[in-house]
Amino acid sequence: MPARQTSGSAGFDVAAGETVVLLPGERKLVRTGFAIAVPEGWECQVRPRSGLALKHGITLPNTPGTIDSDYRGELCVSLVNLGTEPFEVVRGMRIAQLLFARVPEVVFEEVAELPPTGRGLGGFGSTGF
Fold it and tell me: Residues 8-25: pLDDT tens digits?
């Protein structure tokens, strides 16, 4: 079962349900062996574990991934090896973490122009470093 490792942990660690080897640059879908029912109005975000990313280059190519409230299949985690060595994901190894967030009901409205802001059209890097 997903579990928090400390009382202050925001995420629930998820373990691999199978053993697989990830070659450098390779992506694989890793089974966890369980499914969850996310309540309506919520999403479950799947995020990488920082230790795996820093020490081994193992991360998620679509971070954060989202599990929608109407999905009922097995939870699988897409992993990628950005490191230079093969990496063995062993069954039971913590490979990702789950965080839950509310999903607001949003309605899009077409408008002729947007209200101004101090930033305006400034894009990437426009607010400084």
Answer: 999 999 999 999 999 999
Residue 110's SS3 state is coil
pTM of the model: 0.85
User: 94-102 and 42-48: which strand pairing?
Assistant: antiparallel
- Residue 102 and residue 15 in contact, taking contact as beta carbons nearer than 8 Å: no
Tokens coding 50:
């920082």
Q: For each of the domains in the chain, give its residue range(s) and CATH number, in order of start.
A: 12-102 (2.70.40.10)
What DSSP line would sit under 27-73, residue for residue? EEEEE-S----PPTTEEEEEEE-HHHHHHH-EE-TTSSEEE-TT--S
